[in-house]
Amino acid sequence: MQPTRHNMLKIGITGGIGSGKTLVCQIFAQLGVPVYNADDAAKQLVQNNAQLQAEITEAFGSDAFINGQYNRGYIASIVFSDPERLNQLNAIIHPYVFADWQAFVDQHQAFPYVIKEAAIMLETDSRFTVDKIVLVYAPLALRLARLQNRDGFNLDDTLKRIANQMSEEDKLKLCHYVIHNDGEQALIEQIMDLHAQFIALSKHSNTI
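Given the sequence above, the corresponding structure tokens read:
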């Protein structure tokens, strides 16, 4: 049985749409770091957790699920232009994601650190579930250029989503580390440097 490591580091990675945070997390995963994708976990929980489904249905009505499938378009039409309803939805889902994240952390105690990837981290209590936060940063024009190559890209919808999120400038003030994914600075070198820092930080945290 593995000894419990209470001081294992929990690293949050976030970034605006098109910043490349998923690519960054894939590279960390290739280095052997356990990565938890909070957005994917939320989707899985909404689709499979009966208690969570019941809470969403109570708050948003019977149309929230059609034949057991999450009616994402219906929910989006409600919360997209209503911040209070969006906060209500997040308040329902986030405790389930936080519990799932804690279970993930408990399962990986033998590792120096784990990563939580989340698009909306600094805007929510998610930021309190990690020790350090890394922002993957890229200029808006470059992010939009990348997104144009994605299936289903809609410029108006994307700009609305970006407008509803915290500005990159405000995110920079709240993050402990920044990875510049701008095509000019070497991405792998930045990740390897942070990887070494996190391992060293983990060792230090377990000796104090």
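Confidence is low (pLDDT under 50) at residues 1-5. Try to locate this feature in the token string yourself.
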